[in-house]
Amino acid sequence: MSHEDCIFCKIIKGEIPSAKVYEDEHVYAFLDISQVTKGHTLVIPKQHTRNLYDTPSEVASNLFAAVPRIANAIKDTYGAIGMNLLNNNEAAANQQVFHLHLHLLPKYSEEEGFSAIWKTHADDYSMDDLQHIAQEINKNVAN
Ligand code: 5GP
Ligand code: ZN
């Protein structure tokens, strides 16, 4: 998807209306229309990237630099007792909008809105297995 067709680029430019939570030189944050929980916010870089895979470190740094302040603002405003941070990359991981975004999902109770099912496979891996996997991945970390 080109920048011209990207709905989040249009939101940054004001061509599509949004409920803006925060903005600086590098970052735009606005309420997710789905409001999975009250205050559910999307934090996006002003520079268009598809998702984490094509995002330069500098863009990621500038994006994340704003996150703790936004998270605290949501927490303080509505008294959230917790918060999940979620980032979906590619369709297989439920990415629907192809402009990098972080979901900030405040929690007000155990039951409400968002939960992640965490299926452990710890019993399937020995420490040697884990060391092997870690080394394989490490070899592919770009400098
Ligand atoms: P994804 O599944 O790609 O991680 O999440 C995309 C999110 O963008 C969804 O939670 C959806 O509700 C939100 N979204 C999609 N279109 C719009 C829009 O036009 N305005 C706002 N505020 N949120 C949107
Ligand atoms: Zn975009």
TrEMBL record:
SUPFAM superfamilies recorded: HIT-like (SSF54197)
Residues at the active site: 101
InterPro entries, alphabetized: HINT, Histidine_triad_CS, Histidine_triad_HIT, HIT-like, HIT-like_sf
Gene3D superfamilies associated with the record: HIT-like (1.20.5.1170)
Keyword Membrane: no
Keywords attached to this entry: Methyltransferase, Transferase
EC numbers, comma separated: 2.1.1.-
Stated name of the protein: HIT family protein
